[in-house]
Each structure stands twice: as structure tokens, then as C-alpha cells.
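Protein modeling request. Please complete all fields; requests missing the sequence field cannot be processed.
Requester role: graduate student
Desired output: 3D structure, C-alpha cell encoding
Chains: 1
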Amino acid sequence: MNDQDRVSDLLAMEKKLGNNYDLFASECVNLALRNEFVKDLTQSHNVQTELFQAARSRGRYQSEPAPGDK
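Delivered output (70 residues):
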């Protein structure tokens, strides 16, 4: 497994975790526990951003700038 595969695998894992935290928070009755899930969701989004930026800097995700009129 190379570095690109590792980053992609970690990104997929964080996306799944984020989905789970969102589901848990939305269905949680206990407010304090819900807030913990929301904190975990925020942290997961931050990790996803870092992993995406790492993958993009290694050429994994190519994107073109949007035209100025869009």
C-alpha cells in the first residue's frame, strides 16, 4: 500500500466516522452526549479537510479553477 492509498483509505474512514457521528448526534436524547458527538463530528470534518489537502497536494485530486462568471 502506497502513501496515496493510505491517505485515500484514511479519508474514506473519516467520512464514515463523520456520517456516524452525525447520525448519533441527531438521534441522541441526552444533550450532553449529543454535544460530544457534535464535537467529534467537527473534529472529523477537520481531519477530513487535512487528509483531502494532503491527497490533493500529492496529485490525487485534480481540479480546475472555476470560470470567473460562475
